[in-house]
Amino acid sequence: QVQLVESGGGLVQAGGSLRLSCAASGRTLSSYGMGWFRQAPGKEREFVAAISRNGGFIHYADSVKGRFTISRDSAKNTVYLQMNSLKPEDTAVYSCAARIQYVPVYGSSWYEERDKYDIWGQGTQVTVSS
Question: Second label for 116, Cα 20 to 30 Å away, from 13, 34, 64, 100?
């Protein structure tokens, strides 16, 4: 069973950058599509970004497009979320999630189905001050 651990969160001023990491243990991530989600206080968990098992398909929420970059490093069994030009509205707990993917999926909606993800990390807090 894969276990996911996020790191890299923290407090940053608006306009700043953070890089989140999602490290996996117990099994390789090579068979999983990976997603990042976030949840702000009083709001539902929302989709942020996702990447297919082979890295050939990437999808972003409109709210982060052009500012965030998702990537994966198979050798390190880790997925990253580079966040630039951060805004106060990006403040949330960010969680990574893994969904088994037998073949690469090239459709956006598949990655946004948060209830279909199999494994979740515990989350890391990102706070952006104005």
Answer: 64
